[in-house]
């Protein structure tokens, strides 16, 4: 089976869990005899292509013709949109300001005529001020790629809302079935105060698809109930974790204190403020603990101020955004990992922590809670329960050892090969649906 896949990021250049999931997934698909051509807005040339062929959209010259591009409807809907707010996932306020300034200085404007599309376009591949322009341009390029690769793929797979229009355009050009993957909905990112434009793109993508993959039953229910997608077209395939080929030696700790780690975007969805409140409660009972907040996001300044007001700044460490080997080293240094997300479609980071033999605490409001038995589960808002869980894991060695050992055994069974086999079955179903 051959798949034309549209993504937005791929290791080592990632801003969040989406790129990590795409990497593990494509490796798993390769081992299930699925050939993947992975298209991304901007490739750097250092991507691991042993299991996937990466196509750089910035190298594709798309000649826009409204009668045959497959993207005409998309351009009409998108041409009025200009983004001037931080509405997207995976971007910190600092990065957003930098991207916005760069965009303004360039003198570029949102397109005004279709002539602007008859050229090669260099994508930033980032989450910046002209994101919607890139989303629409990506759809035009996707139509061109699908035309160029005619007869060379059996199904189209698009990841998250950023690539849904690309998937739709490729489907219109090729006539091949479309599978869209919902890793995080607008309701996860924004609660009930959703961005209607993003919601509209998500809904359009899922309704145009022959099958929808949700990363958890939690996400599947949102897709069905909030977006009106028929239940028989939505399949849950839980994410997995890839074990590193070389784990490397554990870094030198340098301190005897226990280390409790939060790793993720410092934004409302991830619950960083609950982590801080729980930390303050733990420190009243056990002083020799250090809390690490690894990440960046729009709540960073708020969290720093709150830490200062609680008088625990000497026990708190902010590392900024970590990626690659630095993430693995942080887990190796940790005694406890905690993910207190308010809404988490899945959450790969607890699996990565368990892979490093670290006991984890996760919120009950996360998709990963559906597949883990040996993780301590608490409601994100229950900071007392969260503090008790942290206290228990750092105070009682036998408890910590049990969760670490059993957790490692459990996560070892969550392989991308198995998840990929389920995804392949979804492809087969999409093909069968189209033939009906």
Overall description:
The chain has a seven-stranded parallel sheet, with helices on both faces. A six-stranded parallel sheet has the order 12-11-10-13-14-15, with helices on both faces. The chain has two domains: 2-240 and 416-435, Glycogen Phosphorylase B (Rossmann fold); 258-412, 3-Layer(aba) Sandwich (Rossmann fold), CATH 3.40.50. It has 436 residues and is of the alpha/beta class. Helix 8 links the parallel strand 8 (211-214) and strand 9. The longest helix is centred in the last third of the chain and has 20 residues, at 416-435. It is elongated, with a radius of gyration of 22 Å. The two termini are 20 Å apart. Helix 4 (131-148) packs parallel to helix 5 and helix 5 packs parallel to helix 7. The chain is built from 15 helices and 15 strands. Helices cover 41% and strands 15% of the residues.
| Category by helix and strand content | alpha/beta
CATH class of the largest domain: Alpha Beta
Backbone shape: elongated
Radius of gyration, in Å, reads: 22 Å
The count of strands amounts to 15
The major pleated sheet works out as: 7 strands, parallel
- State the end-to-end distance: 20 Å
Number of domains: 2
Q: Percent of residues in helical segments?
A: 40-55%
Strand order of the largest sheet: 3-2-1-6-7-8-9
Task: Return the string of H and E elements.
Answer: EHEEEHHEHEHEHHEHEEHEHEHEHEEHHH
- Strand content is 5-15%
User: So how many helices?
Assistant: 15
Architecture per CATH nomenclature, i.e. the level-2 architecture of the largest domain? 3-Layer(aba) Sandwich
Kindly report the CATH topology of the largest domain. Answer: Rossmann fold
Which stretches of 5+ consecutive residues score pLDDT under 50? Answer: 77-97, 108-118
In CATH terms, the superfamily of the largest domain is: Glycogen Phosphorylase B
Summarize model confidence as the mean pLDDT.
Answer: 86
